Amino acid sequence: MSEELESLKGVGPATAERLRKAGFTTLEAIAVTPVRELMEKVGLGYETAIKISRIARGYIGLEFTTAKEVWERRKNLARCSTGSKELDKMLGGGIETQALTELIGEYGVGKTQLCLKLSVMVQLPRSEGGLEGRALYIDTEGTFSPERVYQIAVAMGLDPSKILDNIIVARAYNSDHQALIIDHLFEICPKENVKLVVVDSMISHFRGEYVGRENLSERQQKLNSCLHKLVRLAEIYNLAVVVTNQVQANPAAFFGDPNRPAGGHIMAHACTHRIYIRKSKESVRIARVIDSPYLPESEARFRISEKGIEDVNP
What we know:
By secondary structure, the chain is an alpha/beta fold. It contains 13 helices and 13 strands. The protein starts with 12 loop residues before the first helix and ends with a strand.
């Protein structure tokens, strides 16, 4: 649903234009944005901002509702296949829309490979496990490889030129730039039929720029803001959001895996599904659900190949 902004009671052409210039092009985007953010970005007074926000929420039904209505809304949820049947089974059918999925693991474990494969899979027809939409890839570490996407497309028997044309890439050079790109997603995703947003990686810039315990609070607040915008984006536009996360070593751990996800409780609370990936023999990887509202804690094996990722025994 994307009605004209002028349909909002009390919003004239001038205010509507200011909202659009600030990136609020749909009622959905206005409805889920905090009032303070509307005030800062659009230059609205408190009373005007809260009035517009309340009316927008009423238009798209974000007030009190019944569990049955939520159930009906959840029927629109879709899943994008990863290309691995075993991994799809663990995820309940694939990477789901209206959710934020986190891929955790050390360097070289295959997080980016899985993200690139998803960027190809999302373009396929729903009958083939796709979402019939485009992918938007936010690259924070310079790891996006169009050559690898080309290789995956050719190995899958797809037109590599068409596949590459349907992946929108944004290179984020610092945390402020990353936050600005995320703000623009509310405008570009509905306009470009984006069904998958990838942030690879979510926390890299924040860890590099906010060094020391004295800066931890500010870092976590900004990270939290970005994560919740991605959650709102996934819900209102029924698309899938996948973020990758790094690990940090716990020197006090003498037994078991010393690595733990970076980002602390902020990452843990914001992400809908958390998937931890670790290396096994040769190109084989093991993925495990470590946190989810309803997916059971289980494991799946997949391997990295010229097709991106696929089952160990296809």
